[in-house]
Design goal:
This protein is an all-beta fold and 188 residues long. The protein has strands at residues 2-4, 9-15, 23-30, 36-41, 48-50, 61-63, 79-85, 89-95, 101-107, 117-122, 128-133, 140-146, 152-159. Strand 12 (140-146) and strand 13 (152-159) form a beta hairpin.
Length: 188
């Protein structure tokens, strides 16, 4: 279980002695003073599809081809999480095989700005896509590809109704929610 707070603290929780009602913090990372607005586990490459029309239990589930977000040598998926902060910082925390936590951060773009809403999705090819906006209808919803080295690349974006006239600016509604329709295989 992952949790994040307004102070930039991210905690990974595990069941103590496999008890559902007893949890303990197993790992933590922080982006001090920078509230987390989007948080997701890195995709491990396992995706099961449920086929509800099938009567045979063995045919109800199938594996879908999907690549892990990050891999070790030999293709073994890396475990960890990715977070986006209100100041436009992307932070990736990886659980190394020896149990230690490796964390790296990078700005979504060259000029960091306020991010009010963000969401994280994964492509079938193992890429990570972040959508971000400041919530204003005069600002774009921007999409970024996050690479293994925590490089980000600006992708084609959505521009809502835009006006340069300050008198008419309040006539357009604000962007209040931002969500990918599907968080996996989002390139389709």
């Amino acid at each position: 279980l992952l949790s994040a707070d307004g102070d930039g603290q991210i905690k990974c929780w595990g069941m103590a002695e496999h008890l559902v009602n007893s949890w303990e913090c197993t790992q933590s990372s922080s982006v001090d003073g920078d509230p987390i607005i989007a948080l997701s586990w890195l995709h491990n490459g396992v995706k099961l599809a449920l086929h509800s029309g099938s009567t045979n239990f063995g045919e109800k589930f199938s594996r879908v081809k999907f690549s892990p977000s990050l891999t070790l040598f030999g293709g073994k998926p890396m475990e960890g999480w990715l977070a986006v902060t209100v100041s436009g910082l992307v932070t990736v925390s990886l659980l190394k095989p020896n149990g230690t936590l490796l964390t790296a951060s990078e700005s979504l773009c060259r000029l960091r700005g306020r991010v009010a809403l963000a969401d994280i999705a994964f492509t079938g090819g193992g890429n990570i896509v972040v959508a971000a906006t400041d919530g204003s209808s005069s600002s774009p919803v921007q999409f970024y590809k996050v690479c293994c080295r925590i490089d980000t690349e600006l992708l084609p974006s959505l521009f809502m109704r835009c006006t340069t006239d300050p008198v008419r600016r309040d006539k357009y509604p604000a962007v209040t929610h931002l969500k990918f329709l599907t968080r996996e295989n989002s390139e389709q």
